[in-house]
């Protein structure tokens, strides 16, 4: 059983060498003793690289067990798509496809609480989509935009990290709603993708802008109604000065801060008061019980080609560490996925 193991807790930017790959023996049958009661054994097919995993690589105390530090010398854990290879749970049988949020970064995992897995019934779409558009990032874009942002037709929407797993979908949802949508991303190639593939009205490379406040003013001369925040730091500060009265900011993530020992201060927060802005954080795990509603909404759009999704698939579990750390330098173009083996 090939596994990706965290060597030690990480400070600063994560590196590929913070993890190593080891192979340990595995039985491909569950044992008959009590320890396997209700458990399932899964073969992992696709593993998801998600920015929040960086937090779990640090030894920081947290209030929320979903974000607790990874166990050292054990496989790291994240979202994944898997096939059941053995089951001692009445609800699952060999061959069933599932996705879940507690898959080990290994070829095979023992899942002790399979009731928390989501079954995959729709296989006319790529299975890897269940790590992205049909999984956690898809729900993040959907609930983050439609619920947290309270959007209205014609509003002006800005999205940072816009070409990524979440951002590319927020932009497409906002276009479906009839909003004016601008995104930023970290390369020419990504900017082109935003405009030509995802249908954003406009896009820019934030790395090319020395004055973010002025750049945003150029794209939003009348101000921003909705900011879908993925980045934080200087970007948030610049956006605050460009917000309209009664604007909304969905604080989805702040990836520019995750590797800093000392997070940057935000200077322009008083704008929130005077412009009557609603700034709201959210964590998608709180919405997981609404998964069926989300699936019913998004599947028809995918099938009709009205929503598209770009993935960046790295092949081979041994390349997982480099794919994961690549999120923090923007190496991924679209949703970063690891295909565990070449067999599927
Ligand atoms: P992405 O697929 O967008 O990958 C991360 C991207 O972030 C990189 O490709 C890079 O794109 C950008 N980035 C990396 N470092 C920086 C930096 N220092 N400054 C600016 N941009 C940077 O990731 P996701 O779509 O999965 O996640 C986007 C955000 O949403 C993250 O902040 C994440 O934590 C958050 N999130 C929150 C959830 C919630 O429940 N609240 C759930 C899921 C995600 P570029 O080339 O454009 O710089």
CATH architecture of the largest domain: Alpha-Beta Complex
**Strand content bin:** 25-35%
Kindly provide the name of the CATH class of the largest domain. Alpha Beta
Helix content: 10-25%
CATH superfamily descriptor of the largest domain: Medium-chain alcohol dehydrogenases, catalytic domain
Distance between the termini: 16 Å
| Helix count, DSSP H or I runs of 4 or more residues | 9
Radius of gyration: 20 Å
Q: What does this protein look like?
A:
The protein starts with a strand and ends in a 5-residue tail after the last strand. The model has no long low-confidence stretch (mean pLDDT 96). The strands form 3 sheets. Strands 3, 4, 5, 6, 7, 14 and 15 form a 7-stranded mixed sheet that branches. Strands 10-9-8-11-12-13 form a 6-stranded parallel sheet, sandwiched between helices. Helix 2 (136-148) crosses helix 3 and helix 5 packs across helix 6 (234-240). The chain folds into 2 domains: 2-132 and 310-339, Alpha-Beta Complex (Quinone Oxidoreductase, Chain A, domain 1); 136-285, Rossmann fold (3-Layer(aba) Sandwich), CATH 3.40.50. It has helices at 53-56, 136-148, 167-176, 188-196, 212-219, 234-240, 271-274, 291-303, 320-326, and strands at 2-6, 19-23, 40-48, 77-87, 97-104, 108-111, 118-119, 156-159, 180-185, 202-205, 224-229, 243-251, 278-281, 311-315, 335-339. With 344 residues, it is of the alpha/beta class. 22% of the residues lie in helices and 25% in strands.
């Amino acid at each position: 059983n090939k596994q990706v193991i965290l060597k030690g807790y990480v400070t600063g930017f994560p590196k590929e060498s913070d993890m190593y790959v080891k192979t340990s023996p595995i039985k491909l049958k569950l044992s008959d003793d009590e320890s396997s009661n209700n458990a399932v054994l899964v073969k992992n097919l696709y593993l998801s690289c998600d920015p929040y995993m960086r937090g779990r690589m640090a030894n920081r105390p947290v209030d929320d067990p979903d974000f607790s530090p990874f166990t050292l010398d054990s496989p790291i854990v994240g979202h994944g798509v898997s096939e059941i290879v053995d089951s001692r749970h009445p609800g699952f049988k060999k061959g069933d496809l599932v996705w879940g949020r507690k898959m080990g970064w290994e070829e095979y995992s023992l899942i002790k609480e399979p009731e928390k897995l989501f079954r995959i019934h729709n296989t006319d779409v790529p299975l890897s989509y269940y790590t992205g558009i049909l999984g956690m990032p898809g729900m993040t874009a959907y609930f983050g935009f439609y619920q947290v942002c309270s959007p209205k037709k014609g509003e002006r929407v800005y999205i940072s990290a816009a070409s990524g797993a979440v951002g590319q979908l927020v932009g497409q949802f906002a276009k479906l709603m009839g909003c004016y949508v601008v995104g930023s991303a970290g390369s020419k190639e990504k900017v082109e993708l935003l405009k030509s593939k995802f249908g954003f009205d406009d896009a820019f490379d934030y790395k090319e802008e020395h004055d973010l406040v002025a750049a945003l003013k150029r794209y939003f001369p009348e101000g921003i109604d909705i900011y879908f925040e993925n980045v934080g730091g200087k970007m948030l500060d610049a956006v605050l000065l460009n917000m309209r009265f009664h604007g909304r900011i969905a604080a989805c993530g702040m990836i520019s801060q995750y590797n800093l020992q000392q997070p940057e201060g935000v200077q322009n927060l008083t704008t929130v008061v005077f412009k009557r802005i609603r700034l709201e954080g959210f964590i998608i795990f709180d919405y997981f019980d609404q998964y069926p509603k989300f699936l019913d909404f998004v599947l028809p759009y995918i099938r009709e080609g009205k929503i598209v999704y770009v993935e960046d698939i790295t092949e081979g579990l041994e390349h997982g560490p480099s794919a994961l750390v690549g999120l923090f330098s923007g190496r991924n173009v679209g949703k970063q996925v690891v295909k565990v083996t070449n067999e599927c």
